[in-house]
Amino acid sequence: MDDAIKVSFGRNITPVRRTEEGALYRMEDKTGVGTMEVYHVFPGIELVYNDFHMEACLSEFYSKVPLLGIDHCKEGRIEWEMTGGSCLYLQEGDLQVSGKRDQIRAFGFPLSHYHGITVGVYVDDLDRPTGELLKFFGISIDALYRRYCSSDTAAYLNRADDSISRLFEELYATRGKYEASYLQIKVVELLYLLQGLDEEGRKRRGYFSKKQVDIVKQIAAFLTANLERNYTIAELAGQFCIPQTSMKLCFRGVYGSPIGQYLRNYRMNTAAKLLREGNMSVAAVAGAVGYDNQSKFAAAFKAVIGSTPTGYQKLSVRLEPDLPPWSSKQKGD
C-alpha cells in the first residue's frame, strides 16, 4: 500500500481495486463489512463514497497536511469519538465540515449501516493549476480552512441546506455514470456553496459525553436482549443510574429515535425474521417480541413492515435483505 493511501486511510484498509482515477477499499471485522470508493478529483482533493454495514470500526486515519473535511450522510448514522471525551453524531441529511483533528480512531454505526460522501481537501497538496481554477470561481481554500478548521472553532454540523442537499442527491443518483469532469464541477460547486453557509450551523447539536453514550448503548443492548419484557422509562433510568431526561435525550441522539420507537422497530423486524423462518405461529412470535395481545401486535407490525403478520408469513420473502433489525429506515419513520 503506497504512502498516499496510508496518509488517507490507514494500514487496516484492504485495497480491492486501484486505477489512475481512484480506488476501492474494503474493511471487514466480526460485525460486518464496509467499503470506501475513492475518486481523485483534483490533486489534493478526493471524493469518497462510504458504505458501511457494520457496528463499529477502528481507523488509522490521519493527515500530514492541513485537511478540510466535508461529510454528508445519505442514510443511517455515524458516530465519531472525540479526543475531549464526547461523541459526535451525523444523521440522515446532515452536513459536517471540520479539520477532523479532534476525531480519534473509533467510529461507530449505531444503526449498523451508514451511507454517505466525504470530500477531503488536503490544503498543502493542492497544485497551482487547481488553486488558480478555484480562484477563478472566487473560492479561497485558505479562507475556507480558517473558517471551518481553526483551533478555536467547533465543527460545522447542521442539516444541509436545499442547494447542498440537491448537489449531494445528484452525486448519489449519478454514481458511476459520469466522467471525471462531472465530479470536478460538483466539487467546485460544493466549495463555492460552503463559502455562503450561515454560521448558525456551528453548534454542538450532535455531541454527547462518552459516559452517557456508553450507558444508553447498554440500555439498548439490554432491551433488545429482553424483547419479551416491557420496561418503563423510570425502571430503565433507575436500573442504569441515569436521569430520565438525560437518558431520553442521549438515546435519541445516538439512535435517531425515541426509545419506544426504536424498540418497536427492532421488535417488528425481529418478528418479521421469525415469521420468515416459518418455525413459529403468529401468536408465538407476538409473545416472543413482547406482545400478549395479537391485535396490538398485528397493528404494530403493519405500521412498521407494511403488511399483516399472516400476510407477511404467507409471502415467505425477505422484503429488505440488507436491513438489520435495529435500522431506522422503516415504514412510517
Structure description:
The protein has 12 helices and 12 strands. A hairpin with a 2-residue loop joins strand 3 (32-42) and strand 4. Mean pLDDT is 85; it is low at 1-8 and 317-333. It is elongated, with a radius of gyration of 22 Å. It has 2 domains: 3-205, Jelly Rolls; 209-315, Orthogonal Bundle (Arc Repressor Mutant, subunit A). 40% of the residues lie in helices and 26% in strands. The protein is α+β, with helices and mostly antiparallel strands. Strands 1, 2, 3, 4, 5, 6, 7, 8, 9, 10, 11 and 12 form a 12-stranded antiparallel β-sheet that branches. The two termini are 42 Å apart. It has helices at residues 3-8, 128-136, 141-149, 162-173, 180-194, 210-225, 233-240, 244-255, 259-277, 282-288, 294-305, 309-315; strands spanning 14-18, 22-29, 32-42, 45-53, 56-58, 67-82, 86-91, 94-98, 103-108, 114-122, 156-159, 207-209. Helix 4 runs antiparallel to helix 5 (180-194), helix 6 packs across helix 8 (244-255) and helix 9 packs across helix 12 (309-315).
